[in-house]
Amino acid sequence: MAGVQVLPAGMPVPDITVSKGSAKRSYPFQGDETLEFIPLGAGNEVGRSCCLLKFKGKTIMFDCGAHPGYRGDQSLPFFDEVDADSIDILLITHFHVDHAAAVPYFLTKTTFKGKVYMTYPTAAICKLVWSDFIKVSGIAEQPGTSLYTDKDINETINRITCIDYHQQVEIEGVKFWCYNAGHVIGACMFMVQIAGVRLLYTGDYSRQQDRHLMAAEMPSVKVDVLVVESTYGVQQHEPRGSREKRLVDAIVSTLQLGGRVLLPVFAIGRAQELLLLLDEYWRKQPELHKYPIICLSAMAKKCIVSYQTYINQMNNRIRNLFDIENPFDFRHIRYLSSMSEFDDSKPCVVMASPGMLQNGPSRELFDRWCEVRHNLTVITGYCVQHTLAKELLDTEPATHTLQDGREVALKMRVHYVSFSAHADFIQTSEFIEQLRPSQIVLVHGEANMMASLKKRLVAKYEQSGVGVWSPDNTETVRLTFHESKVAKVVGSMAVERPKTGASLQGLVLHNNFQLTICSMDEMSAHAGLQVSHLIQRQNIPFSQPWEVLYFHLSKLFDSIVEVRAEKDTSTSFGGVEEGADTKAPDDSTKKGKTEKIAPTKNTALRILDSVTLRKAAPGLLELEWASNPVHDLVADAVLSVILHSLSNPST
After folding, report:
1. Are 423 and 232 a contacting pair, CB within 8 Å?
2. 392-429 burial, b for 16+ CB within 10 Å, e for fewer?
């Protein structure tokens, strides 16, 4: 049976000393005690999150995203560094492009045959994200260059298994479950346990509750390895009330000056947070009703169904509101599916994706409005390298290159008000302090942010022996865990409790990193194996006298018993039934020989109590034995003697 290892016959069964606490011993079949963690993406960068865990012969992949700053194959994780066929499980934390956009590619364009798990809201929204990704990225318009097709997306959806928060899944010794991560609806942190070692992969998480999401949960179990995002390094977020006021003040002042306001957003996630904020503010300010708020995203409208379906995963504020009215049934928000529907004749607020202005409706509006000083763009989320949004924030350029190649003056004001649902330094520090992991691996952070966070953590935990790692892409972090091995004694051996310091002798079974000791007779019950007996028979032409064969056999074997064969030899184990017709030679007989007996029609020889030799027919011998390594060896030796006596009867 796959996954069950039993010590081979003939191998000495190791003694296990029972001491107070647990039984400790190293076994050759327990696997390497070195845990390997390898980022294929998100190593000293933000984008294309994809990480591997290798331990005890198992390989788990966390997330499978695409880099928003690149296109085509360049946006993918470093898949060429891994054998996709060797990956057992793929775990997706949430639906954002940089964590999930490469899933259809990986499932349909590589040799990956494992299982894929994510939460129900993530699966529901992923199909929208994947379809939008191949359209908004622009590469779908170029025949033959798309990373995947709609057909690939449908095939991928059929391979996904959905799970709930805290639902434990076990696959061949690998146990995993997930916790609410905040960040976006359905986002989760995965806890994976292999051979008693626990690793928590946070993905993107937030320990701060916002207008519609709960804060990330705090796991209550011990964590050995924490893989945590380092997006904001040692930066601290502005209080929510303060940043909300700055945003609405900037928007209102721009509208009153006759300007347009562009809010580049991710269509699902921060968009809903900002829509809740603006719709509530507009309700309280009647004088603003003349200024329309437009959400230029068909996907944002479609995902509202998922938000309403999984309202139970929202915070108490939203759940309480839902008892009165649907909080996502906005009064002052108008959804548009395309730019052709947009009326750009008066001041307005427009939310459009993508959030980093790399292409799509948000980039088109930015290009249209960038030459007017009364207009305003507010960047509300985190921006990765190689995107227009990141360039605007870092360099504050005086000119801007339009998508058609023309360079124009950049007069539009650009503000940054972060509504990013990533943990800041305070949240991360408190999270680590409560978890107290023995090892910390930093991912999902630009090199300078990750380095600053690592420096602070090393300074804080160097005295306690906690390791802090910040691997680059494809760099391997190797951690060794010398775990105490506990073997469970079962069956008849467990009738009496083993005494401290005593030795146990039994069969050690290894099943999914669990050790069990039982008696040999009870192996089938505890190993889940069916015991079968294989009887082998071989017919050999033989023309020499029986006495000649008997003579040659007695030269080699010192235990030959002549027995009386039954008429139906196939029904008896070994083919014969021992009788008292003939006994082994007495002390006066030379060792190695038996007493000569005149053979009869029903005579058979039992050799070393392993192999039976009988006359099957005139001129034909039948060799029969119950197959096992020892009996097979004896049968080979008997056959060799028979063949030798045929060629050299006189010897």
Report:
1. yes
2. beeeeeeebeeeeeeeeebebbbbebbbbbbbbbebbb
Q: Are 235 and 425 in contact (CB under 8 A)?
A: yes
For the segment 277-296, the average pLDDT, to the nearest whole number, is 94
Beta carbons within 8 Å of 598's beta carbon, 6+ residues apart: none
CA 122 to chain centre: 16
Nearest-Å Rg of the Cα atoms of the chain is 37
The CA distance from 289 to 361, in Å, is: 24
Comparing 2 with 64, the larger pLDDT belongs to 64
CB 125 within 8 A of CB 301: no
Which 3-state string (H, E, C) describes 88-144? CEEECCCCCHHHHCCHHHHHHHCCCCCEEEEEHHHHHHHHHHHHHHHHHCCHHHCCC
Tokens of 105: 């590619």
Is 422 known to be catalytic? yes
Q: What are phi and psi of 144, to 5 degrees?
A: 85, 0
- Nearest by Cα to 219 from 230, 233, 208, 207: 207
Give, in order, the Cα–Cα distances in Å from 66 to each of 151, 154, 268, 363. 19, 19, 16, 19
11/629 Cα distance (integer angstroms): 12
627: which 2 tokens? 């197959």
Q: Could you tell me how many residues make up the chain?
A: 651
Backbone angles phi, psi at 200, to 5 degrees: -110, 120
pTM: 0.75
pLDDT over threshold 80, residue 32: no
Instruction: Write out 533-552 in H/E/C secondary structure.
Output: CCEEEEEEECCCCHHHHHHH
Dig out the tokens for 646 from the structure. 């045929």
Q: How far is CA 390 from CA 11, 132, 440, in A?
A: 64, 22, 28
Which residue among the candidates 422, 444, 552, 631 is catalytic per the annotation?
422
Q: Are 343 and 242 in contact (CB under 8 A)?
A: no
Is the pLDDT at 614 greater than 50, yes or no? yes
Q: How far apart are the first and last CA of the chain?
A: 49
